Every structure is written in structure tokens, then in C-alpha cells.
Amino acid sequence: MAHLLMIELPGGNDTDMLDAALARGDQVTFVSAALEHYRQQPAVAAMLARLARVIEISPFTDAALQREVQAIHRQQPLDAVLCLVDTRVPHAARLAASLGLPGLDPASAQRLRDKYEIRCHLREQGITQPAFALACNNEELRQAVATLGLPVLIKPADGYGSQNIVVLRHEEDLDPLLSPLEHMLPSHADYGLGVKANDRLLVERLLDGTIIGCDTLSRNGQHQLLGIHEKSFVPAPSFAIRGGCFTPAHPGFADIERYLFTLLDAVGFNHGAAHTELILGADGPRLIEINPRLVGARIPRLVSLALGYSHHQAVIALHCGQPLPAPGKARIAVSRWLLSSASGRLRQLQLPDWHDPRILGMDVVKAVGADIRPPFDNSDRLACVMVCADSRGQAEQLAERYLADCRILLD
């Protein structure tokens, strides 16, 4: 039995890592900057009640975190520090290092929280990337777009989860009466838990190709590719992901694996889970971004179904210095998100009353009474179905049929 420290919950409500820890028989100390956020959610509050300790640190600073955790560590030594929330990853890395526990190199963790700094770092190491620039005000933003030329993609340098992204493709998008360039900064974006956007925008040439996500586990600088997640997006201008297909690693991924591991080495990623997004185009793979934590949005459940073991428990074992779980039978796994075509307040979500053994998960993320709109980003998704089958075609067809039978009732 291990003693784990968990910092915040991804998405503000995802308790899967806590479930995995308790299933292993571990004790968990949970730390948050805003416990009331979790206690207002009955299911999350019930989970927190099962943990060994629940601690609030507000304001959330390295000094306060070190003070509280070091005192706990002296009473009951910790075996691992876990964090799946982007904004807290540098804190977790520094804390693990101070406790002498396995974790991501603190310098790498801090660097990975700034997408512009990562671009600069990789450019210095000779890695080919799309042309890019930094903008800290609207005038710099207009100049960056003019210099790079259309099409361009604009996203917060400290952002995550496909939020607050803008794509400009055509000259009409630069019309002062329509263009977002006139009022993007200051953004006043709030990432929650007391973290505000720093208003540094990364502007880069938009690349065409197939977007994939690569899930890896790294131990002491040695990387393992678990598989590749090919994402399906809602049509532009939305940036919501409508689902994906996870394929376990196999020899056909060798070229992608070599490029991926080169990137991880280049940024100093030495320990933990990472979800790296690439675009496969005419010139080969190119980096979109490296997320220095476990993939979010319930996708670890999809990975677990495909690999035949718990992705969450594998991450815990990795941070505890234990062997990874034995893999089961590998299969193709597909996810599809339920989306609304209209705006309103959710009155009822009716799920299909039919069963198929290949449907292995259905997760509802929007509660009755929630404000609903057509999808612009990932926060607008309602529910997710997960399917495993021997072929991608079978899995995708079944997932689409299931969603077609769902009914969304709005006020």
C-alpha cells in the first residue's frame, strides 16, 4: 500500500485517478486551492470523504504547499506526488524533487507550461517547426499575423484543453469589423482555482494534416509509447473534439515513435505520463504541443479498454517505482461525444435502452439544468460513449448508432 499525494482533479470533477488509487489499496492525501468547488458536487464530495486527508491551501503557493506537505511527510512518508492539472504541474514537479520522489524534472515542467518557450527551445535544437511568433498585446498580435501570413492559429501560451483557440484562414477574417484581432487582449481568461491567463499568445502558421495524440509513459528518461489516438473534430470554426480512435502501439508506428521520443528528449521530459499532439502532413510529423500529464477528457478510460489494464494504475505504479500492470488483449477503442445542435438549458438526457457487449462505457458530463450550446470547444460536450471492437470500422459504426438514438431535451 502506497501513500499518494494528489493535487487537484482534472476537469474539476474527474475522480478516476482516486478510484484507481483506492482500488490498489493506496492511501491518498488530496490537496486543493478550492475545496468548496469539489464539495458542491455530491459524487466528488463522497469520494473525498474516503481519502486519508483532504487539505485546502489558499492562496496556493510553493511555500505553502511545501510547508503543509513536508509536515505530512514527516508523519507518514509519501511514496508519490500525482498531478493531472496543467496549471499545477510545475508545483508538483518541484514538490516531488524536494521530497526526493520520482517526478518530472522541475525545469522541464516549468518550460512545458509555456507553448512559446517550448517552440523557442526546440528551434534552438534544430527541430523543424511551423513559423511562429509571440504577441502580448493586440498591436503585436496584428503584426504577428501580418508577418506570418494566413492561415494562422492563435492560442494562449499558457493554455490547455483546446480552449480559447482562434484560426484565421481568409482575408475576410482580418476585417476590422469582424476580426478577433482587435479585442483578444486582455483576455480576462480565468483557468479556475485562482489561476488567471498571463495573456501571452502564441501565433503560428496553421499546418494541414491528420491530428494524432501519442500517449507515453517515461521512467528515468526512457519512454514507452502506449498507442496513438486519432482525433475527430467538429467542423470549423469549432475546436471541440467529437471523439477519437485509440490504436495500441505496434511496429507500424516506428517512425512516429522515433520523432516523438526525440521531442520528449529535447524538452527534458524524463518521468511520468505525457500526451503529445502531432500533425501528420506532407512533410512528415510536426509537433502541435506536449502536454506534461495524463491525457484528459476521460480518454484514459479509452486507453485502459484498448490495452486491457488501468491506465491510471499504470501512472501510479510508475510514480511509485513499481512495475507496470501486465497488459491484456489489445483492441481498437473508439469514443464519440454527444453534442447539441441547439442552445438552451438541459431538461433531460435520454440514453438508448439497448445493450451491446462492445459498448464498454457511457459517461455523462453535463447535469440537468446546465446551459447547453452547439459545440465551440470541449467544454460544450454532453456525454461520451466508448466502444471496443476488433476493427475500427465496427467500433465507429456502433458508437455513431448509439449517439443517434440519444435524445437531448432543452428548455
Counted beta strands: 21
Structural class: alpha+beta
CA radius of gyration is 21 Å
Task: Report the portion of residues in β strands.
Answer: 25-35%
Which blocks of ≥5 consecutive residues have pLDDT under 50?
none
**Main sheet makeup:** 8 strands, antiparallel
Q: Helical amount among residues, as a percent range?
A: 25-40%
Strand order of the largest sheet: 15-14-11-12-13-16-20-18
Number of helices: 12
Mean pLDDT: 91
Distance between the termini: 49 Å
Overall, the morphology is globular
Describe the 3D structure:
By secondary structure, this protein is of the alpha+beta class. It has twelve helices and 21 strands. Helix content is 28%, strand content 30%. Strand 8 (190-192) and strand 9 (195-196) form a beta hairpin. The chain starts with a strand and ends with a strand. The strands form five sheets. An eight-stranded antiparallel sheet has the order 15-14-11-12-13-16-20-18, with helices on both faces. The relative contact order is 0.12. The protein has helices at residues 16-24, 35-39, 42-48, 62-75, 89-99, 106-111, 115-124, 138-148, 254-266, 299-307, 311-319, 392-404, and strands at residues 3-7, 27-32, 53-56, 80-83, 132-135, 152-156, 166-168, 190-192, 195-196, 201-205, 210-219, 222-233, 241-248, 272-281, 284-291, 332-338, 344-350, 359-364, 371-372, 383-389, 407-410. The radius of gyration is 21 Å and the shape is globular.
